[in-house]
Design a protein that fits this description.
alpha+beta, 183 residues, six-stranded antiparallel β-sheet, 6 strands, single chain
């Protein structure tokens, strides 16, 4: 019996590789608390159409800032209105908000964020809109390689002289013949 049968329909999600405007569905909305005591919802989105259909924009946080509740109200109202929650709807807790967001569809604008503390650059949701009838529109701007703090690119791909590869200077070789491979 085979250990694994390759199935292109059973793979980990691909990532969106360009900034732009995307029609998405919320696939994860988890409540957490920051080190400063502010609660937030960490959201993953899956693209519904176009070039990146099925790809994900992950780990986007919507934070309730205790120091500025009015700005927090606007921040949460923006996403709730975009997913179609009607005016006058009472939301009892951030947990209820997260549960209500799960599975909802909307359109998001994403752009490349500033490099994080490790020099990595990720997509960041910049705005929310009601689901558009127009298709998703990548804008052609791919991940920049700026802000590196090591000799790796911003995507984490090792450069040819990367010292993190324990086999880079090995004199050992492995000879695998094509007949030994199942593919």
């Amino acid at each position: 019996m085979a250990w694994l049968t390759v199935d292109s329909n059973n793979v980990l999600g691909s990532m969106v590789e360009e900034a732009g405007t995307y029609n998405v569905q919320i696939t994860r909305a988890d409540v957490s608390k920051s080190g400063r005591g502010n609660q937030y919802i960490s959201i993953d989105y899956q693209v519904l159409d176009g070039t990146y259909k099925g790809a994900e924009v992950r780990f986007q946080n919507v934070t309730w800032t205790n120091d500025d509740p009015e700005a927090s109200k606007k921040r949460f109202n923006t996403i709730l209105v975009a997913v179609g929650v009607p005016d006058g709807t009472d939301v009892e807790s951030i947990e209820q908000c997260a549960k209500g967001l799960l599975g909802k569809k909307l359109t998001i604008d994403v752009d490349w964020a500033d490099p994080n503390s490790r020099g990595k650059i990720y997509l960041q949701v910049r705005s929310y809109h009601k689901l558009s009838q127009d298709p998703s529109k990548p804008n052609g701007v791919k991940r920049p390689n700026a802000g590196q703090t090591s000799d790796k690119t911003a995507t984490g791909t090792p450069l040819p002289n990367d010292n993190d590869d324990p086999f880079a200077n090995s004199n050992d070789s492995v000879d695998v013949k094509d007949d030994d491979l199942p593919f």
